[in-house]
What does this fold into?
Amino acid sequence: MVDYIARDGVALLQVNNPPVNALSHHVRVAIEEGLKKAGQDPRIKSIVISGKGSFIAGADIKDVSKPTILELCDLIESSGKPVVAAIKGFALGGGHEIAISCHYRIAHEKSKFGFPEVDIGILPAAGGTQRFPRLVGLEAALDLIPSGRHIGAAQAFKLGIVDKVVRGDAVEEAVKFAKSIAGEPLVDRRTSQRPVMGAENAFLAAAVKLAMKKKKGMIAPIVCLSVSFMGSLLPFEQGIQVEAAEAVVVFTSGQMGALQYAFFAQRAAPKWLLPCGASFKTVKGRPIRNAAVIGAGTMGTGITMAMLNAGIPVTLVEQDRKFLDKGVSLLKLLYAGSVSLRKITQDQCDAILSKLNTAVGYKSLTNVDLVIEAVYENMALKKQIFAELDRICPPETFLWTNTSALDIDEIASATRRPDKVLGTHFFVPAYHMKLLENVRGKLTSAETVASAQMFGTRIGKIPVVVGNCHGFVGNRMLHKYVYEADFLIEEGCWPEDVDMVAENFGLPLGPFKVRDLSGLDIRVRGLLEQAKAAGIEINPATRFLNGERISLLSKSLVDKGHCGRKTGRGFYNYGKPGGKIPLNDRFIKDVIVEYCAERGIERRKVAYQEIEERLFLPLINEGFKILEEGIASKPEDIDTIWLLGYAWPRHTGGPMYYANMVGLDKIYNRICHYNELHKHSAHWQPSLLLKKLAASKTPMKDWMEVAQASSKL
Ligand SMILES: CC/C=C\C=C\CC(=O)SCCNC(=O)CCNC(=O)[C@H](O)C(C)(C)COP(=O)(O)OP(=O)(O)OC[C@H]1O[C@@H](n2cnc3c(N)ncnc32)[C@H](O)[C@@H]1OP(=O)(O)O
It folds into this structure.
């Protein structure tokens, strides 16, 4: 609601709509009523708009109706009595638009401003695309509106968004100020009446280029740019008409629904539920007071940094002093980089590093709440480490393993506390990437899951609970995409054909550029280990493993020294070891042609649609199998994992949302089509859940009803 407090000639309208003071219908109605009441009361000389706790985080994304925020903004700006915005916390989206419609703005030094509309697929269409350039000039507007970026009070002051920045109580200051300007003329305080400064074409071209790079595939940022620019050439009232017309384009594009789904999915994903019924609502986690990380390689140092950044004291452990020193040097170098880039001060860096301890061997780990093991992916080694940790650490210490695919139950079996063992799958670089897959084994307790989720949030991650299977959620789906990418090359594509389709779809890099970056030898090693475990000897003619089609093309390239960027050649030619620009290469094509000829594989022209379907449909199909098996507890978890861990294009919502948008029956039919053609790839066998959803024409959001109905049969 909105509290109306009249004091000494000032009406204070204080929005009180937790958690973020979104402009829900009743809030908009109450602001409108408050403004009218204050306008009509002769004792009131000026008005202050503020929010309890924080200012206003924008429209309520779930509730858009009348009065519109545009109408409210016009009402505020046209008020005959001065209106002052008192800003603490966030002034975002519609909240920002309300603030810039006020005649004055007083902000607390820690307040934040921004137009996040583009990230939920819309425009600041409450006059924001027209008022903002009139307030800050075209160049700054074309930078901030399409970026969705938040800025602090100091920058907002520099740009002219706020009139005064205060350290104390912004509301008290605003009320005092409002009293002092009672009765003053408002003509030059109405933003819509100002001209746009710096309306130049050059800003537009540069901004469009940047938006196409940073918000690849998204419509809203480009529309924002064109509307803001056009508005700068038109009178305000005509600019508003352009804004309204173009808002319809984005409202009907399909991207709005996908981006808003992604926003809520990301907030729903950390809310966990186990098959036994335990959930985030019923089980509390144990806070982590201190921790140890085993292994000072890339993952271990990254995880250590993620914890140090959150203020958790960490002991970094290695078996060998040389490796430990190397890891610590790397870590210190990264922090020094942050200092030189002014991301942190030297004092902050020193404070962070004061919480780092190091140790050779595990003997000192007798008083830690948590150990995260982050050695390389080798089951025997991990089991040996867990057995030793189990002997040394107190019985209540959590023992977690950073693995991207290995069996959590097998690792837990090396201990006497399988209930406290869990997989923490961090993504590279671990100090930066937002996603954390928390993998529960069959004996992992609900308290351990709750603690891992709490820990994930504390270190700034979006933690998602997943079940234990090879590759968990993310990598299990990824493997199917990677397999098909290889098969497409065998059948007639070049790496650049496949990469182009994936990149056009919205991924930042196609599968072969990614492989070149991570190193071809890594995948080959994995394949060879898989073959060894299956007791199969790989020879040039091998095309099946355990009855499943495999491709040894990467091995052929690795055998010729093509390990990717690091050797200067992989699926592309980079000119030199460590080169960054991928060039198509005749020699690589010859290797591919020779590889196919040796195996009697006839190459053909593969159509664009087939490439796209064969890359993404197996991955989606696997997502439905994961849901059906209970490895993920909701589609939002799968989509969040793909959005944050694998850079899936956000404007399509995630693989599960995308499938629903295309039509589950259509997706199912195409999977069946490829299943007929590719009998040696289990990933084409359609998911039963998908089949049922498609047959019953049930949308994704009601998947649980279908899943429950089938489990009762
Ligand atoms: C279709 C729209 C039509 C017209 C639009 C007009 C212009 C707009 O204003 S569009 C909206 C612009 N604003 C935003 O996009 C802000 C979105 N929110 C945030 O960025 C963050 O929530 C935050 C304000 C920075 C606060 O972050 P944090 O403290 O981390 O809290 P959260 O976990 O993100 O959110 C808490 C809780 O609030 C819900 N929520 C947040 N914003 C909105 C919103 N604008 N509408 C509805 N609900 C919102 C969020 O889902 C969380 O809910 P839980 O149930 O607790 O998960």
Notes: The longest strand covers residues 2-7. Residues 19-20, 22, 57-62, 64, 69, 90, 92-94, 116-117, 120, 122, 126, 264, 267 surround LTDHYY67 (CB under 6 Å).
